[in-house]
Amino acid sequence: MSIFRVAAWLVTIGLILTLIVVGKSYLVPIFVALVLWYLVNALNDQFRHLPFVGTRLPNSVTLLMSLIFIGLTLYAISDMIVNTVNGFVQESDIYLPRIEAQIARMYEQFHIDRPPPSIVDLKLGQQLLGNFALVFAGVTSAAKGVALVLLYVLFFLVEQGSFPRKMRALGLDMEGSTRFTYVLAEINTAMRTYLGVKTLTSIATALLSFVVFRIIGLDYALFWAFLIFLFNFVPTIGSITATALPALLALVQFDSLTPFLVVVLGVTVIQILVGNIIEPRLMGSTLNISPLVVVLSLILWSMLWGIVGMLLSVPITVAIIIVCAQFPETRPIAILLSRNGDVNTRKLKRRGRKHQDTGEILAK
């Protein structure tokens, strides 16, 4: 590879990273809208199969039902978060003395001679109120961005109907049209499989964890179950964080260590069973991505886009692998990012011969 080609690649990568960082406020809503667009279409497919007087519902009706369902879900989630934060603020007078008592108990168990620090000494109350204020600000900011995201989703839904005609109007040669069709089909399959399986397993993990929380009587069990559902989309550290937070509340809420151990062990076992046994069987070999690359992409996208970057790190990386595998110049990148170095697209090509029309592939 010549020095000029290396320089061109470095400049291109630098420009892309600059665009990602500088355009964060514009790109994040678009990528979130893409995820919601996939979810809307997945729900639409399910609603289309519902029996209605012996016939299927019209596509426009099922799309509207999907949008309403997702909108109501987002409203319910934001309302639950606000109510939970309000509950924490109102009951801070109950939790803060319990934290102080737990600190004193730890000092006693470890035979520390000096007196334990109080809540006032640690300034913990001010820190908690400050964190609650940040949560409120985050929810308010997210609520403002929801309207823009939903607008993007509507544009995607409108465009998907005319996309096949645009593809035919491009007039690409057979090779170019076939390659483009293959890439879209593979990305579409990978994204739908990932989002579908991940959503299903996250719901199962959250429901089982909710049962554990209810059995021991943990406060705000529904909120912690939702947090587990959400953080399950974050690779590696998501499960650890989602388990640690309710465990800490159990440590403060109850006088004994038994509820704390039940939460830690119970949720951990659920995460292992669902995440390491059930999920790989459902996911299969759709996501051909190295575990090390998963961790590195999580770090990179969290630095660039924060929480949203964590949630989207795997789908974005999978799409990069699929695109890079189609061109000889970028194929080594796909091989390095893949799980086992196998980025052969012959399987995809066989599938593409059965679906020559791009719109038919995308509609699946």
From TrEMBL:
InterPro entries (alphabetical): AI-2E-like (IPR002549)
TM region positions: 6-39, 60-78, 132-158, 195-216, 222-245, 257-278, 298-325
Keyword Membrane: yes
Entry GO CC: membrane
Subcellular location, record wording: Membrane
GO terms of biological process kind: transmembrane transport
Entry keywords, A to Z: Membrane, Transmembrane, Transmembrane helix
Recorded topology in the membrane: Multi-pass membrane protein
Main location: membrane
Superkingdom of the source species: Bacteria
PANTHER family (UniProt xref): AI-2 TRANSPORT PROTEIN TQSA, TRANSMEMBRANE PROTEIN
Assigned protein family: Belongs to the autoinducer-2 exporter (AI-2E) (TC 2.A.86) family.
Protein name, as recorded: Putative PurR-regulated permease PerM
Source species of the chain: Neolewinella aquimaris
